[in-house]
Amino acid sequence: VVKQIPRHFLSIRDITREELLRLVERSAEIKTAYKANYAARKPVALSGLEGQNVAMLFSKRSTRTRISVESATTCLGGNSLFLGKDDIQLGVNECMYDTARVISSMTSGIVARVNSYNDVATLAKHSSTPVINGLCDTFHPLQALADLLTIKETFGTFDNLKVAWVGDVNNVLHDMLIACAKLGIGAAVAKPKDVSIRTDILALIKEAAKEKNTKIEFKDDPKEAVKNADIVVTDTWVSMGQEAEKEQRLKQFAGYQVTEQIMELANKSGKFMHCMPRHPEEVTDEVFYGPRSLVFQEAENRKWTTIAALEAFFVNRGNIL
Ligand code: CP
Ligand code: NVA
User: Cβ atoms within 10 A of the Cβ of 294, count?
Assistant: First the structure.
């Protein structure tokens, strides 16, 4: 028997530009079908996980990722098993290797929200079934998919757009930059001087930028970064796991809050995005709840893009095109 090596989705790095575009397109098809059929009270013909289980290995909190994965699994006919950090033996009585072997032997796919990239990579390495990263310290590919769908719905295209990110350099930004680089969406990141992007991540972004010759810039001044931006994005300054550094981080990022004044320096039609959960220090209420904000559409799009991702990796086993 030839052992089949599953195709995992740990970062936008793992898929090609064409696959990325197809996943966004498929998400839009699914969303349209659901909205139309919901109004007409007709079921949508999505399938592939009947009689199968998706394991959700979540060692951190989640609202959007949890709901989108659980509901996406149901849409595809399957059942999800939510395995929180206090529910299973991992980390207390059992190592990742044993956990990976056991969980994958009983399920058709794993969505994992763990702490380090090393944890999700170890899980994937020893899993006999596909693993999708539901956020680790380095990547958040499902978020990037939802953000791209939101951008496509808003601007109708990925061409001639500029994203400006203001704030921390983190998991969400890493996959967003890889995605922008692949699709030719220009990006400027405003971050404090003492916060740097990891060299290995920068190398991934540069590699991804080659095909479309995408311009990705790093600046200190938010006012500079948001010039000519179509989309201004930020995320929390204190990611899960960094709670002990909260005080120091709030000081470090002071001056990087997205305010109405910052938004006014972006393009007239410029929009605001945030993966949520949000804290007021990184963006004012005025912007977050204001007319330029796409945040709730972006959150809802987690569901449609997650259906497309589960279908691609768990049903179609990584055959996306
Ligand atoms: N954006 C996001 O991943 O949200 P949750 O942490 O609530 O899943
Ligand atoms: N950067 C945040 C994203 C949460 C969805 C975190 O890692 O906590």
Answer: 19
Whole-angstrom Cα Rg for the chain: 19
Residue 132 shares a structural domain with residue 150: no
Tell me the CA–centroid distance for residue 1 and ligand 1, in Å. Answer: 40
Answer whether 68 contacts ligand 2 (Cβ < 6 A): no
Distance CA 119, CA 301 (A): 27
Number of residues assigned to the chain: 321
Instruction: Answer whether 14 contacts ligand 2 (Cβ < 6 A).
Output: no
Over residues 104-129, the pLDDT tens digits come to 999 999 999 999 999 999 999 999 99
- The CATH code of the domain that includes 134 is 3.40.50.1370
Of 25-39, 101-115, 215-229, 291-305, the range with the lowest mean pLDDT is 25-39
Ligand 2 lined by 235 (C-beta under 6 Å) = yes
Domain span at 101: 12-139+304-309
Ligand (nearest to CA of 175): 2
Which residues form the catalytic set? 275
pLDDT above 70 for 1: no
Instruction: Kindly write down the DSSP assignment for every residue of 24-70, as one continuous string.
Output: HHHHHHHHHHHHHHHHTT------S-TT-EEEEEESS--SHHHHHHH
CA 115 to centroid of ligand 1, rounded, Å: 14
* pTM metric for this prediction: 0.98
For the Cβ of 275 lying below 6 angstroms from any atom of ligand 1, the answer is: yes
Relative to the alpha carbon of 61, which ligand is closest?
1
> CA-CA distance, 266 to 165, in Å (whole number)?
12
- Which residue owns the Cα nearest ligand 1 atom 1? 275
